[in-house]
Design goal:
The structure is a homodimer of 738-residue chains.
Chain A lengths: L2 H25 L6 H4 L1 H5 L4 H10 L3 H8 L2 H42 L3 H8 L6 H6 L4 H4 L13 H34 L10 E5 L10 H12 L4 E8 L2 H27 L11 E3 L9 E3 H26 L1 E9 L2 H9 L10 E4 L8 H4 L3 H21 L1 H10 L2 H7 L4 H4 L2 H33 L5 H26 L1 H5 L1 H6 L3 H36 L1 H13 L4 H8 L6 H18 L6 H22 L12 H25 L11 H21 L3 H4 L9 H7 L13 H9 L9
Antiparallel strand pairs in A: 1-5, 1-6, 2-5, 3-4
Helix pairs in contact in A: 1-24, 5-28, 6-10, 6-27, 6-28, 6-29, 10-29, 10-30, 12-13, 13-33, 16-20, 16-21, 17-20, 20-21, 21-24, 21-27, 24-27, 24-28, 24-29, 25-26, 27-28, 27-29, 29-30
GO molecular function, one term (chains A, B): calcium-activated cation channel activity
Protein name (chains A, B): CSC1-like protein ERD4
Organism (chains A, B): Panicum virgatum (Blackwell switchgrass)
Chain lengths: 738, 738
């Protein structure tokens, strides 16, 4: 890639971005698009018009709005999790800005005035590896401003060496400040005076099998009543309510159908046909076959039939499908916090307690898995993930090999017509492997989420964190390392295995990395211009929304479902940002020109994410910034990768002072350890200090209890709560033991 | 070593043992020796006569007594710790007995009827290594019954291979049962109805520096009163009381001197001299120089002078020498247990809480070390221990080299007279290196204990565990591995470093170990016959006691101090037993003849330890079996060493099925992990289940509080308790905040 094509590529991306921003500016002013551009405001009952009107005044109004919004506004709109995500973006941004302030004015002149590349080219000797040799003469203008242009053993390398220290210490400083800030955010969020059900509850797992004539509910009650005599409020045993849920959803579905049919019926009553046409549908597969029935009548009948079924199933579920897990409620926050941290049983595989997740955050089927099952599942999942990360390229290559046009023609002869046309053939032949790659990559997050949930994790937020972690290692390994090392990795795999030695790996990184600088410059540019353009303009949700509204949605609820914005999707968003952070960090000293691109990426990312948080996305759970330690660890992992690489790269320049960099690795580990020791416990558990804060009002314990009842088991009236509870415990008509 | 000398050595040891047992039987019957043989009984106010009388009837009476004593008796006499130590001995005993039952009848015939050694000798080819070649012909009778006698690739190796599995599973089974048993012992001990001060207290460290106009006591009080409004009872800030302690000890010393002088004075009042001679002493160095004074008068005056000083110092200590640690008391056991497990502060380096150790168990100066200091100290100590374990032989060799006779003569010329006599010279020359070794080995436990305390560990019992762990690794490395591998290790250190590979180490172990079998047979025999003989007969304490009583002790207190038995000394006892267990385990399949010796060692050990626990030693603290997880881990470490060795040894016989042994290593790790997960938490923390048990009576909170006041600060009357507490908090005459 020469300079011209590099500039073309960056410019193209930029033009696309500008077009998309203009599209956004234009489309977001139209009131009909409000549900796509301001769903969060609409759901919170605010008037999107204000923002729109301000937007009318100036096309960059949304930028002003995003910048002027305070952290409190962000927390109000998207919760602490969104605020923490913004802190993450701004932390990386600060690291890059502080680094750039020193590195750009210092390193660019130092590198630009040396003549390492000229000398290498003149002498005709090949640099350390072929790839670099190929790329170096192609793009001398950019390479000249990078470490490659420094002559070996030059004293100019001191500037690069000290820059590595500068970047590292900037990272420590920013991370420390951010961790402190997030820690305070979390503490503030957890000590607000309004009560949250999860703060009064404790999740109990591994409830031992009680005697056959006692329900699990009874044994939970008697156990906790004995251990917390004055503070135990109530308990709710987790049930296997899949069947009840199925019936409940069926009823809901029928209700929706009736609503839709009624709208259709009303619309059909035109003046010419005042009677209207009663909507009908077929009862068979997908409404295509089977008997034709009147929708409203049929569905009402179905509901009538299902309701008693649901009631019976609810009773059976509560009484006979109790699982070995329960949610226990206490009458004060600090007691619940303390109970969740206290060992209850003498043997660890019974009565395991932990903080209860938010009701909407719970993954019900995972609650009842016992501790051994969880351990085994974790081991299995980790092995699968390891194999996936390392051997991901293998199935893709295999699929691309099998799915050649020739094979496709044999298996699916009806494609012949299309495939045999020369023009289509060429295009398909070129893109089939890429399509395979894209399909596999698109399936990956869902696959990783499935794996994370299979671990037996009790909450959505935790599963998202687990997925994000797995995805991070995947992208760093497969995009960054595999691209950089490329073929070298696989040919020299034998060498690595023979000398299982970290030194070899660092060396290999060091020889391969400088060659990749230009690729990643383009990559970052493309990623943020096009990616953020699409994100901001929300073109795809917009199109889907309008199509749905026009052709499918009949009732208000259906329209609402069509523009439901979902949440921020941390599980793919964070690892992708982390990939960019890793790339930019690793190249920051080697090719400082990447820093402005990184700064642009994270600045724009922060701006757009803030806009989307304020106006678009609606959080589907609140984990009070539990994600932060996870992000922190991964930034440090990126820093370690960067430091190890730099030790190798500067060492390869035959610079005798390069061992001065070695202490950075242990310093990073010590920094990580100190942060973990100092801040992490308050993320893993609720400190008593925080739980102790006064509440605004006496908590409504019934409401807290009700919040945890699954939708399909919820009694119609609050007064039925006792009946609900009794259904669990009195199955053997025994008085609850005390 | 041939068979004759082996038998001689074992027989000699046995004769010494029998003589010592006879000496014990004879001496323990004499009433004058009761304080040496029955100190524990005396201190508990029991009549040692009963035991003695029964002992009179039969010389093996003590054996009957020891066997018939139940675990409850043991706990009553020596606490749970002693009972756990006995469980440890009996567990190893069971492992060896179960192993022996199968291994001896199976392996001895299998090995004895093969002719591997004959063939090797006949062919004149050298076996795998030279050492074995040297030892094999020397002791064929024993080697013939061992693995060495099996021909390579023989199907008889199946018997050995399956034996490794048998021993491993026996170990898992016994360890699981023992862990369960000890876990119950601990739970029972912790839920007894009589109250113990430490169960109501929590140790708080890293108390943040309060504002200058507030004492630490005030800030502790206000913090805990806010977080535990209904359950907080009182707090006691740890003070730096070294100076007060010094004055207090001085007073006590003077009091002792007066008591002694009064006895001397009374004794001097004979009929011929009814006035008596007033005892005098000199005030200078060691009572050798200085003015001669009347002891009673002088000491009384000194006490009179010191008492106000002590009082003033007590006040200063309480007010101005408060440290950043405190003991906080709660009004119920379960609240204290829960509080000790709950995170209090939002940042982890403040308000760290943990269970309070027993008052007598506390190491006061360590309490106030802050969390960072503790971490740094731990790292430094671990490094020193690592260096000590690995390079222990170096200073010894160096000292032996320097302390040759020639050098000694030069440095200490006055030794010339002794050293120049030929007879003495020969003996000295032969023994000087051994003396150096013995001196170094004798200093080691004290050195390791010093290191463990320097880590900042808050309790004696924890320091003992830490010392024991360090000592275990030391003996296994220096006695077992270094002896076995001998010179091979150091010559092939380069090979190991070059191929940093666990396989090489296993191979080396496998080639060297079989040669050591005979040495260790003798070692175990010597160790237990002579060691246990001395232990049982208590010859050295007996001689010291009689010498002291005759020449030094004048008052009752002095006599009592002369026979004070001390505690069991787990820090050296456990690692020494573990060394034998490791040796016997490692040789159990290679040379099954070692098993009877191991069984004898642990059976006798159990018997004698039980006797000593019941009659001699007095526990100086009670940690409720906290030592067990430590022992358990080390038995598993020994098992892993054994399994790794056996994989190597059987592999060296070119037995193609030897990889069948490989799964044993992961199985052991999984077993260790499951045990840890299941049982360990109840050792690290107090489960609520256990803390909840009812108390016999309402606890006397004042007594609990008083138990933690250091001797030198204790007020004379219980009523002064409030004054004592106020001295800490009211220094600024501020009312305690609520």
């Amino acid at each position: 890639m020469d300079l011209a094509s590099f500039l073309t590529s960056v410019l193209t991306s930029f033009v696309i971005f500008v077009v998309l921003v203009l599209v956004f500016t234009f489309l977001s002013r139209r009131p009909g698009n409000a549900p796509v551009y301001y769903p969060s405001l609409l759901l919170r009952g605010l008037d999107p018009g204000e923002g729109r009107r301000r937007g009318t005044r100036s096309p960059v109004g949304w930028i002003r709005d995003a910048i002027s919004a305070s952290e409190t506004d962000v927390i109000a709109a998207g919760g602490v999790d969104a605020a923490v995500y913004l802190v993450f973006l701004s932390s990386v941004l600060s690291i890059l800005v502080y680094s750039g302030i020193v590195l750009l004015p210092v390193l660019l002149p130092v590198a630009g005035t040396d003549r390492g590349l000229e000398l290498t080219a003149a002498a005709g000797i090949s640099p350390k590896n072929d790839e670099k040799n190929n790329s170096a003469p192609e793009l001398p203008e950019i390479q000249r401003l990078a470490l490659s242009n420094i002559q070996p053993q030059s004293m100019r390398l001191w500037a690069f060496l000290l820059s590595v220290y500068w970047v590292s210490f900037v990272t420590y400083f920013v991370l420390w400040k951010s961790y402190k800030h997030v820690s305070n955010l979390r503490a503030t969020a957890r000590s607000t005076p309004d009560f949250k059900p999860e703060e009064f509850a404790v999740l109990v797992r591994d409830v031992p099998r009680s005697s056959p004539d006692e329900t699990i509910k009874d044994s939970v009650d008697s156990y906790f009543r004995a251990l917390h005599p004055n503070t135990f409020y109530r308990s709710m045993v987790v049930t296997d309510h899949t069947k009840a849920d199925k019936i409940y959803l069926e009823i809901e579905d029928h209700k929706k159908k009736i609503a839709r049919a009624e709208v259709l019926y009303a619309n059909s009553k035109t003046e010419s046909n005042p009677e209207g046409i009663k909507p009908t549908h077929r009862t068979g597969f997908l409404g295509l076959i089977g008997k034709k029935v009147d929708t409203i009548e049929y569905c009402s009948e179905q509901i009538k039939e299902l309701l008693p079924k649901l009631e019976a199933e609810q009773k059976t579920t509560l009484r006979d499908k109790q699982q070995q897990a329960a949610i226990v409620f206490f009458n004060s926050r600090s007691v619940a916090a303390s109970a969740s941290q206290t060992l209850h049983a003498q043997v660890f595989d019974k009565w395991t307690v932990m903080e209860a997740p938010e009701p909407r955050d719970i993954i019900w089927p995972n609650l009842s898995r016992n501790i051994y099952e969880r351990q085994i599942r974790q081991v299995v999942v980790y092995s699968i993930v390891f194999l996936t990360v390392v051997f991901y390229m293998v199935p893709i290559t295999a699929v691309s090999a099998i799915s050649t046009l020739e094979n496709l023609r044999k298996v699916l002869p009806f494609l012949k017509v299309v495939v045999d046309r020369p023009a289509i053939k060429t295009v398909l032949q070129a893109y089939l492997p890429q399509i395979a790659l894209i399909v596999f990559l698109a399936l990956l997050p869902a696959f990783l989420m499935f794996l994370s949930k299979a671990e037996g994790i009790p909450s959505q937020s935790h599963a998202v964190r687990a997925t994000s972690g797995k995805y991070f290692y995947f992208v760093v390994f497969n995009v960054f390392l595999v691209y950089t090392l490329g073929k070298t990795l696989f040919t020299s795999l034998r060498t690595i295995l023979d000398n299982a030695n970290i030194g070899v790996i660092i060396n290999m990184l060091a020889t391969s990395l400088p060659g990749g600088a230009t690729f990643f410059l383009t990559f970052v540019a493309l990623k943020f211009f096009v990616g953020y353009g699409l994100e901001l303009s929300r073109l795809i949700p917009l199109i889907i929304f309008h199509l749905k509204r026009k052709y499918l949605c009949k009732t208000e609820d259906e329209v609402k479902a069509a523009w439901a914005p979902g949440d921020l999707g941390y599980s793919t968003r964070v690892p992708n940002d982390m990939l960019i952070a890793t790339v930019v960090l690793c190249y920051s000293v080697m090719a400082p020109l990447i820093i402005p691109f990184g700064v642009a990426y994270f600045a724009l990312g922060w701006l757009i994410a803030k806009n989307q948080v304020l106006r678009v996305y609606v959080p589907s759970y609140e984990s009070n910034g539990r994600m932060w330690p996870h992000m922190h660890t991964r930034i440090i992992a990126a820093l370690l990768l960067y430091q190890a690489t730099m030790i190798g790269v500067i060492g390869l320049k035959k610079f005798i002072y390069s061992p001065i960099l070695a202490p950075l690795l242990p310093i990073s580990f010590i920094f990580a350890y100190i942060c973990h020791m100092r801040f992490y416990p308050a993320f893993a558990n609720t400190p008593l200090e925080v739980a102790q804060h006064e509440l605004k009002e006496t908590p409504n314990m019934d409401a807290i209890y009700t919040a945890y009842i699954p939708q399909c088991l919820k009694p119609d009236k609050l007064e039925d709560l006792d009946v609900f509870e009794d259904a669990q415990s009195h199955s053997t008509s025994r008085a609850p033991s005390i």
